[in-house]
Amino acid sequence: MRRLIAILPVAAFVIVLVGFMVGLKRDPAILPSMLIGKPLPAFALPPVKPMAAGLTSAELVGEPRLLNVFASWCGPCREEHPVLLQLKAEGVTIDGLDWKEEADAGAHWLDENGDPYAKSGNDRTGRAGIDMGVSGVPETFVIDRRGVVRYRQVGAITPEVWSQTIAPLMAKLKAES
Amino acid sequence: MKRLILIAAAALALAGPTLAVTPDEQLKDPRLEARARALSQELRCLVCQNQSIDDSAAPLAHDLRVILRERLAAGDSDKQAVDYLVARYGDFVLLKPPFQPDTWALWLGPAAILLLAGAGAALYMRGRARVGDAPLSAADEAEAARLMAADKGD
Amino acid sequence: MTAEVGQFALILAFVLAMVQALATLWGAHRGEPVLMALGRAAATLQAGFVILAFGCLAASYIACDFSVALVAQHSNSQQPLAYRFAATWGSHEGSMLLWVLILGIYGGAVARFGGTLRETLQARVLGVQGLIGVAFLGFLIFTSNPFLRLSPAPAEGTELNPLLQDPGLVSHPPLLYLGYVGFSVAFAFAVAALIEGRVDAAWARWVRPWVLAAWVPLTAGITLGSLWAYYELGWGGWWFWDPVENASLMPWLLGTALLHSALVLERRGALVSWTILLSILTFSLSLVGTFLVRSGILTSVHSFAVDPQRGIYILGIITVTTGAALGLYAWRAPSLRTGALFAPLSREGGITLNNVFLVALAATVFLGTFSPVFIEIMGKDKISVGPPYYARTFAPLAIPLLVLVVFGPMLNWKRDNVAAVVRRVRVPAALALAVLLIGLVTVGWKGVVSAAAVGLAAWLVAGAFAIPGRRWWAGRANLSRSVRTTPPAVLGLSLAHAGLGLLLLGVTGVTAWHSDKVLTMRPGDSTVFAGRTLTLQSISLADGPNYQARQARFDITGRGGPYTLVAERRAYASSQTTEAAIHVSPLGNFYISGGDEADGGIVVRLWDHPLIVWIWIGGFTMALGGLVSLSDRRLRLGVAARAPAPAFAPAPVPAE
Asked: What confidence score (pLDDT) does residue B90 get?
């Protein structure tokens, strides 16, 4: 009996240790998205560039696509931008959501750095982003042909992230009926 | 994965102006504002390192404070207003974890551990309590009485 | 050159730690006095070299040697001298060096002052300490070298985070580390005793001063951290249940249990395996705290730069250290002496119950801190745990404990009876009741909880001073002699328990009765708040040694006034800070923070914090009580001078 009780601490310790080891592998700052498996919340945003069409959630159906949340005041967005331009050249459909700034700031940035977006909408107040659970930029949503969110990338899309995670997912979504 | 701008903003939120609620955010109705303050203290600032939205000056915290007040002003109950934010950000936004199967251990753990440890201690002490008194002989009693009379105040 | 000397000293210390560990453990196993003496010498030398290494890093900081990478990252020439020095431990590598420094010094102290210990026991204690030293010196040298050079050296360094440029940085980390690392001695003693298979009253008499010596700075360090956060961070909070704060609270709670357990072991020989287990767990929690701050497993205000690689290394250290110790415990503990008998209503029983509560409290903090990690790895849900959780779990557990604290020292050893105990507490009980009634009259039935809490605080303070009070009353025929001959340990106990009551008073005051107000003010504006009238007199700019400040000058009249307060917003080279203006008084603090510019004025936030100073007065009183206890010669009057060492290896005997 005493032997049993004496073993309890080391047994509990082993369990805790395993928990720590597995826990080390996660990034504690990344939140899982509440939208996975659900359609995007409805929004209708004015255009970023003058004379353009703006962005509505209803339009984001028909084929697998990316919705990239960006801002001109965001440093990592600058790093991600060339990757997005490359993806556009390869035929990936990307739409942009200009988060928490005036449309002309976003327009100016796109003029300077290139525009990888099929359409882009300006979310001046940030509410559309908040409705999607955005807590920072950049974030990118992977949306299937029915308009359902299948994945959210927190942080910049790097070539590794693209080839290891998002590209396979996009291929799978394309194969879906 | 470094969202540098936001981490810098969060750092500034600590190092810089640490006023959270601004006068223009506050609701006119003092009861609603009191509810908003109380609820804000139980909601986490998602881009900070361990602050509530009531305490944090981060832009996202400001947005969430404003949204919370809008919901309350629109007539939501406390639970509805909070659920609005949970629907968007998940349980992580709650500083008080919900009571659900995966948090039963968290909520019931302290009492359970107290009971377990207490039971263990009780069992241990029962094993120790065989404290009897062997009766003293008459001579020993007298000696003991003499010693106690001689030893004062200790 | 200095950095290279430091680097070399560190490597030498590493080698010496290995020699220390091997010589002592092998020497004790074989009963070889020469080897054990070699181990002691190695321990002393190791301490010397770690001191040298630390000195080299500190010298580099003070001299602004920007070719050392750490110095360039955390200091610049405009920084005041005190902060250039304190920046030595303002980084991960530097703070690990501080850790290792204190470990080395403690090891050297055991080698130097442990002469009256059984030689094999002292050797094994040094051996375990040496092994821990090897692990952490290795960690430093291989993953976190503080002496890395930058080439080319920059002309100027990045200053230390302005939040850290404060007297708090000079004292808070060293105090905390004295505590964390200090518990390694008790740990080493416990493991040594398990290896020897002997735990006796002499062992406990030896361990207790070392536990106190670690407990006192940890108490002071935690209190100081709370105080620092209060005046530095600008929104008047004093405890956030942040993971790193919890990491200091957990060893503190278990360390307190250990302190009391060792007392029972020394006096009565009971609670043997319990004391050993607590020794192991307290230091293990110190290690877990180190892991938490440096691995990135949880986000925290206090975290150093996140590096999972370092986390893995530390986890490895924890696995070996705690795992081996607990494994040894599982093997040896059942055969340890089971100890003397006592009735449930006795001081031993009281302390056992005290330990039950402290362990439950520590477990609660552990659950709250690490549940998010465990829940996330088991499912997809991500939850967070904050102050609302602890308010509903920690506080309800602490209250019964606080009630029982008064009874503990009043109980007789071995056996007591209820009627006598009730008689002994009648004075504190009457006082507490009186305070409760006065409180109820003042705040009404709405405030019954806070009135009860204040009554509980009075109970604690009165109960604490009842202990020497009864002694002095019994010896009132010759009162001055009675007072003069009171053992310091008794006074220490009273101070420590009274400090707990003062802490509770402060917590109750600020939690139950605080208020705040936020508004925009232009120069000349006035407002009324918490019984005071506040006028913003002026907003101006001023220069400090390495910052520019926007100063907002306020005139306050009314309660406690009149006085002037200046709230600053400081712009440093790298970032900004808010320096709140605080008026301190025993009845409460008035706290002003100046914020953003708005509408031609500034946003001003006001807080009223009733009784808050008692939190820190209470904490420091507790530490003082521990210090007074430590000064008691009875604690340090060691075992008889060491008998000549036996020529054979002492076979592990079940303790008598």
From this structure: 92
